[in-house]
Design the sequence.
């Protein structure tokens, strides 16, 4: 799985951030009742998982910066480009649908998970076009 | 871009993994460069040239 130092450090960062994220989401859903008003307290508690999400993005940025293998870095950047393109296209498309029709409103919360799924699509694109998926899915 | 990496490697009886370790890159990278799927950056091309003791243009061939 993790075959170079940058990947090992990446996994080493993602595990505690993931644990913190799950704990923060559980804590927020335990403390804040459904449809609570946006008070300073509820906003502060609800933003804790967002800190962890920013942590995921930071870990990915560090991973790209620390990767010394330029070919692997290119594969990873291609995955990120595919993920970003797909997410922007889906978010913009659905946003326009929401403007003009009565389709269900999708919470912005789903943007990041969709982007992560886009990374898997990027792996597939790499596999189909270059023959190598890239190390992290 | 075409290159003579596979021949040069075979002359020295190195595996792709051997070459990857000498260049401090992944075996995936060596395979991608050898098969022409990826053109290395100039710094990596110089490292490859230095390793084989040849000029870059003796390893990487201009497409005609």
Sequence:
């Amino acid at each position: 799985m993790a075959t170079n130092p940058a990947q090992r450090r990446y996994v080493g960062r993602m595990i505690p951030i993931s644990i913190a994220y799950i704990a923060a989401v559980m804590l927020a859903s335990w403390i804040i009742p459904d449809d609570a008003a946006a008070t300073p307290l509820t906003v502060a508690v609800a933003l804790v998982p967002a800190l962890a999400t920013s942590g995921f993005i930071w870990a990915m940025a560090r991973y790209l910066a620390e990767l010394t293998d330029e070919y692997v870095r290119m594969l990873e950047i291609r995955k990120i480009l595919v993920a970003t393109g797909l997410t922007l296209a889906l978010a913009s498309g659905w946003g326009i649908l929401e403007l003009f029709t009565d389709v269900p409103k999708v919470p912005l919360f789903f943007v990041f998970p969709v982007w992560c799924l886009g990374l898997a699509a990027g792996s597939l694109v790499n596999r189909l076009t270059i023959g190598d998926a890239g190390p992290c899915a | 871009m075409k290159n003579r990496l596979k021949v040069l490697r075979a002359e020295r009886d190195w595996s792709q993994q051997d070459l990857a370790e000498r260049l401090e890159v992944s075996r995936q990278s060596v395979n991608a460069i050898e098969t022409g799927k990826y053109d290395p950056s100039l710094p990596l091309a110089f490292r490859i040239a230095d390793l084989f003791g040849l000029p870059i243009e003796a390893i990487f061939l201009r497409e005609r």
In short: The longest strand of chain B covers residues 2-3. Chain B touches chain A at residues 24-26, 28-29, 32-33, 37-38, 40-41, 44 (CB under 8 Å). Chain B has one domain: 2-61.
